[in-house]
Design goal:
about 140 residues, alpha+beta, eight-stranded antiparallel beta barrel, 1 helix, 9 strands, about 25% helix
Length: about 140
C-alpha cells in the first residue's frame, strides 16, 4: 500500500506543477496582449510622395514644394503633429487599420490606409487633390 500512496503523491505533484505552468502561460498571454499598441503600424514620420489632381499623378518632388511644407508625425499616444502648407499644429488621431481619422484645428479629415500608404484628400478652390504619404525609414 505504501508504494501506491507514493505514486498518488507524485501524480498529484505533477498535476499541480502542470496547472501552475498553465496558469503562468495564461496570465503571461493576457498581460502581453494588454501592452500591444494598435497604432504601431503608423507611428512615426510620414512624408508626401505623390499628388494627384485631375487624373494626373505627380511626384511630390516635381511640385517644387519644400519637404517641410507637408507631413504627418504620429505619436504613440494618439496625438500627432500635422504640417499643412508649412503650418504645424498638434492634433488627435484614431487609427482603425484601414483609415486614420484626424482632427486638425476643429476640422475632421479621414485618411485612407493601404499597404503602407496614407492618402489624404484635400479640396482647394474646388479642386480635389490626393496626397499620398509613406513612412520615413
Amino acid at each position: 500500500m505504501r508504494g501506491t500512496n507514493k505514486f498518488k503523491g507524485v501524480y498529484y505533484m505533477k498535476v499541480r506543477v502542470m496547472c501552475l505552468v498553465l496558469c503562468v502561460f495564461v496570465f503571461a498571454s493576457i498581460f502581453c496582449g494588454c501592452g500591444s499598441n494598435g497604432n504601431a503600424e503608423i507611428i512615426g514620420k510620414w512624408v508626401p510622395t505623390t499628388a494627384k489632381t485631375d487624373g494626373e499623378t505627380i511626384s511630390y518632388s516635381e511640385l517644387g514644394i519644400d519637404e517641410d511644407q507637408f507631413g504627418l508625425d504620429f505619436k504613440d499616444s494618439s496625438n500627432c503633429t500635422v504640417t499643412l502648407a508649412g503650418i504645424s499644429c498638434d492634433s488627435a488621431y484614431t487609427f482603425n487599420g484601414t483609415s486614420v481619422d484626424l482632427t486638425v484645428n476643429g476640422t475632421a479629415y479621414k485618411l485612407s490606409y493601404d499597404s503602407g500608404v496614407l492618402t489624404m484628400v484635400l479640396n482647394y478652390d474646388n479642386n480635389r487633390i490626393e496626397f499620398s504619404f509613406t513612412k520615413q525609414r
